[in-house]
Amino acid sequence: MSNLLDDLNKKQKLAAQTLKGAVLVLAGAGSGKTRTLTYRTANLIAAGVDPKNILTVTFTNRAADDMKAKISKLIGTDIINKMNLGTFHSICLKILRDNLKKVDRSEGCLIYDTTDSIAIVEDIIFDFDLEETKYDPKTVYNIISKAKMELVNPNYLTEKYAQEDNQWSEHFYKIVSRVYNEYERVLTNNNCFDFNDLIKKTIELLEADTEILKKYQNQFKYIQVDEYQDVNHSQYHLISLLVKPQKNIFVVGDDWQGIYGFRGADISNILEFEYDYPEAEVIKLERNYRSSNNIISASNQLINNNIQNKKKEAWTAAADGAPIFIAGAESPLVEAKYVCKRINNLVDFYNYKLSDIAILCRSHFQSIQLQNQLPKFRIPHQLVGGVSFFDRQEIRYFVNYLKLLVNPNDRLALKRLFRIEVHGVGEILLSEINKYARKNQMEITDVFESPTVVKGIGNNKAANIIEFQRRVIDSIYDLREENLPMHQKAFELYQRVDFDKNVLAELDDPEGRKKYMNMFLDDMADFQKNNPGRGLYDYLLINKLISDKDITEDNQEKVKVMTAHSAKGLEFPVVFIIGVEEEVFPHLKSLEEKESGQNQYAVEEERRLFYVAMTRAEKLLFISFSKQKLSNEQGQYKQIMPSRFLYELPDQRLDFTSVESKKGGSGIQMRKNVEVI
Ligand code: ATP
Ligand code: MG
């Protein structure tokens, strides 16, 4: 037993050995919080706790996979599948799948992503004859989403959000509350959940039925949460429900790294843990194992500029290491070239592999120049969390056929297929078909059988619709009955609807897209091989939940390009942070929010994000900025200042470089109080 925890230091061990009660491990980046949580899980099992009685929540699916791999190394693989280890979303989905009837859903129920949800709202706004200028679908969806995240039901929307004594605001929220009501009805009818439902419906299920609540409280006797600083209100609520009455809760986090405030996360949850659980034990880890002393000292000095902070100590046995390289460039292009040259240099002369290197940016938009330059310097890269494989147009199109195959109630998928496949029948006629079906209590596909019953549909249009019904809808319905492995079913469907001819040929670059379609079909075959008992339904659900999953063409060594947000919890020997400029990092929105008094801590969240970015680095950290930035999609540039965060770093830990363009031009220096020239 003692051997298992020998890989931990004294404090970490203390945490991993505290098996009962409430425990908060509060510590800075790289201090081994995730490691401690992983070892504690193994320790619980070694101490005789049944793996199915442990609920462990991670922030991303990647983190869950990492943790599973480590635990199985520590105590064997057979227990992995018995554990409840995953993100809030995946754990809630499991609970909901076991109780579908109770939450008004049935077998085949799938998940809508944000794009799907906005499309539903758009259809409702169209059906309700609302003006899109006043009721922008995205804005309306965001309000609904926020309400769902805060567990506010349609009837309370106005009360909760409308400005007092403001007639327009009250009117607006009344209408939005009607849309919200209808949205919920459509989701139920279509037999789908949106992302927010996963948590909200689970809470409703547990609150409505004490027997079910007791069952899960009994099952999850030990609850553990990683990245606790980014738990939002509904997730917090869910945990509080489940943790009673045993109160065995073990959370780890770092208030300095709370970066999802904009999505409703609330760092007061971690700051107030001791109020929620007065008997809680608080363990602080102070030794950092990840980064060089220069990186730790500089990032600590940066974060201490925040007022909203718990005091923490951090030290390392590591040497100072290389200084942090700060580089200013004339333009994003020069900056991108600088990064590429540095990377080649590190690989050619310093033995780094491409996979040791990550390039972090505030938002993907900023990395455009870099994405253009990397191939020119022959540096293969992987864009993490950008437009993913599953967001490719042809894949999204094809997924609609598959969705209908598993969930015949998904009218959104049906409408999308109609829009993709049936030419010459516009939105208004589609809406007429819909209305006709509803009025006559028919299925919309029944109307497709004899479309001329709808006013405005002549023989030509009708022929197109009937052909669509035969070739696509009937194929889907027939295939549903057939007993084939899922990848074969998908392939069969691909052929029967003649996707190449009817869909791909209508898009640009059909040959290129066909390659991706083949990769997609191969991925399904792989999934089937690795998960023999599971089917198309699981495949679609899992891909929806795992937003960071991506299919790449080969196993080539690659540098990773990602946002600082998606780098949370990860570590790399070499990190570049690019575009470190005012209005970019800190983001313009945060500056505006602070300026307008809307959120005085908005810039603090940006600083925490910058702290997260810096602390991903183990050995080398390069920070760069440019004198100009792309100000709009038309390619116009504007002058810009280096980020305030650079001035908050201690000079003695830095090394300044100026990067000149080939054409000459002025070199750029960055010293405290020295303007960029
Ligand atoms: P973050 O806040 O960024 O999520 P963290 O506190 O979760 O960081 P970990 O990722 O658990 O930190 O650990 C950082 C690195 O330090 C990992 O590579 C981990 O294996 C290593 N590490 C942590 N504790 C020890 C230890 N006691 N001995 C050796 N290595 C350790
Ligand atoms: Mg961690």
TrEMBL record:
Residues 6-292 form the UvrD-like helicase ATP-binding domain. This is DNA 3'-5' helicase. ATP binds at residues 27-34. Residues 293-569 form the UvrD-like helicase C-terminal domain. GO terms for cellular component: cytosol. GO terms for molecular function: 3'-5' DNA helicase activity; ATP binding; DNA binding; hydrolase activity. Pfam families: UvrD-helicase, UvrD_C. Its EC number is 5.6.2.4. It is an enzyme of class 5 (isomerase). PROSITE patterns: UVRD_HELICASE_ATP_BIND (PS51198), UVRD_HELICASE_CTER (PS51217). It catalyses: ATP + H2O = ADP + phosphate + H(+); Couples ATP hydrolysis with the unwinding of duplex DNA by translocating in the 3'-5' direction. Belongs to the helicase family. UvrD subfamily. Coiled coil: none annotated.
